[in-house]
Predict the structure of DNA replication complex GINS protein SLD5.
Amino acid sequence: GTGSDGDSEELVLTPAQLIRSLEQAWLNEKFAPELLESKPEIIECVVEQLDHMEANLKRAKKGDLKVSVHRMEIERIRYVLSSYLRCRLVKIEKFFPHVLEKEKSRAEGEPSVLSPEEFAFAKEYMANTETYLKNVALKHMPPNLQKVALLKSVPKPNLDSFVFLRVLERQENILVEPETDEQREYTIDLEEGSQHLIRYKTIAPLVASGAVQLI
């Protein structure tokens, strides 16, 4: 293509690149304190890729050494995929009112944090939790406070927590907040390939853009 339709173009990945993007998404999700943008197109492609690999295995000769290697690779990809999705569900359960709030308030054309399935899951989880709390804990509170109580009673993701990262693309003038009150904030350059321990919210946009990889 000529590159005029940028969006659809970047999803034409080789199988190796596809698995690498899944692994990157998985590691970022595992180590980020908040729920990251959902990647439904990667999931979809990986599932197709797995089906394709399974079909190829069925056609292979029994006892072929390559078969056991491919079988291991399929198991590994399945593991990463299910671990990634489970990791996201755990965060949705942990932060559900905040996640839904964020989803409601996102601008048109802004990427969603939830896949349609996750959105349905979060809404149902919220409804069940509200029902449970109403029956057990909130029934003595006025209705207008019950809604507030839910948002307040569920912890927000801690964006101030520290994360390890590897820099994939060099970044200049990243604003870092000081650990102590004496110094004013200062900027640093992140060299490609370097590793750092940094407060998550400082580099959250770089995780989203793929410039850094959480490790």
